[in-house]
Amino acid sequence: MMAASANMNGGNHTVELIVRGASESAADGGSATSASEEITPLLTQSERPKINIFSVYRSRRKPREQVIKVSETEISPVSQFVLWVWNGSSYSGLICMTLSSVTYFIMEVLSDNFTAQSIPLFETAFARCTVTVILSYIWLRRSGQPIFGATQPRNLLVLRALVGYLSLLSFIYCIQRMPFSQAIVLSFTTPIVASIMARIILQETLKIAEIGGLACSFFGMLFIFQQMLTTQGGLLKAEDASNINLRGSQHMYAVLIGLFSSISGGICYCLIKAAAKASDQPVVTVLSFGILASPAAGICTFAFEEFVVPGFYSLSLMIALGTLSFLAEVLLARGLQLEKISKVANVQFIEAALSQLWGISTSRVAPSFGRLVGCLLILISVSCTLFLGPQKETE
């Protein structure tokens, strides 16, 4: 290594030349060389291909998109729709409850238009509960879920089955002892009671908009059945005085039983929600109810009613209605599991509106101002509930 230096003193110039050997330069510059070797990769980063977050995102996304495209080609559109409804969006709870109400409406249409025999109520409940048990068992077996659920929510499942069957039993008694329109109006107080019970038992918030929606829907029910209620009241006043007191006491007793059915039904909604969340499987709640309700309804059939052997046509219709009842109950349990009770309970009133509109369109029900106003109130209330969307509060 050579180094040169120059000094200027007056006019004299001195030039100094220093020559070093290779060994000395290596000894003195060893640390510099090692440092340069460590710094070299950092300095040569610009020579490598540039990688940023966008290039990494594209490189990772391409194979994932290929996997998704392959899976989408393998799944049918019907399966995609079912998966989307079950757990595909934040609106799944409201959509499941809407489909449950529509399924109950379809059951009503089928039972009205394809009835072949007069089947007692307890026998009908026994057939539907039996089909529910079989389909629930098949569902849980095929999905690999435990039949009786986890050990923690079993107490909730037992309570759900007991309270649910008491509600069903009292509702059947109410239908047998009261005019059908009055029994239906009492049964539709269940969503209101369920919202109140959810506030007390589950500590769910009950907002003013939700209270207004429930009140609007219930007033719609009163408008729909106003003519029937006043007509039946007039018939009662025209009867003999000796029978008025007897029928009045029986009617009041039936009304109290109907209110008990609504209260127990509202508590049952809270138990379904709690058990479905604890077990993470809403079908378990349906199975637990069927296991108790099926033998109990069979016993009541032979104890309080005369058993009717159904024909092939009636048996096929009962199986079809039992299958639809199972789907409606599963969707109801899923809706309660995913969403606030006060929101999904208001959606249930759409069944009454659809039933009245179907009756008017098929000329089975005479159109009237009260019915049209009631259907409009229910449709507006349910539409507002769906427009406001799911509950945004974090639990």
Automatic annotation (TrEMBL):
EamA domain residues: 92-225
Transmembrane segments: 81-107, 119-140, 161-178, 184-202, 211-230, 250-272, 284-304, 310-333, 369-389
Keywords: Membrane, Transmembrane, Transmembrane helix
Localization, UniProt: Membrane
GO cellular component, one term: membrane
Membrane topology: Multi-pass membrane protein
InterPro entries according to UniProt: EamA_dom, EmrE-like
Similarity-based family: Belongs to the drug/metabolite transporter (DMT) superfamily. Plant drug/metabolite exporter (P-DME) (TC 2.A.7.4) family.
PANTHER family linked: ACYL-MALONYL CONDENSING ENZYME-RELATED, SOLUTE CARRIER FAMILY 35 MEMBER G1
Protein name: Uncharacterized protein LOC110410100 isoform X1
Organism: Herrania umbratica
Name of the encoding gene: LOC110410100
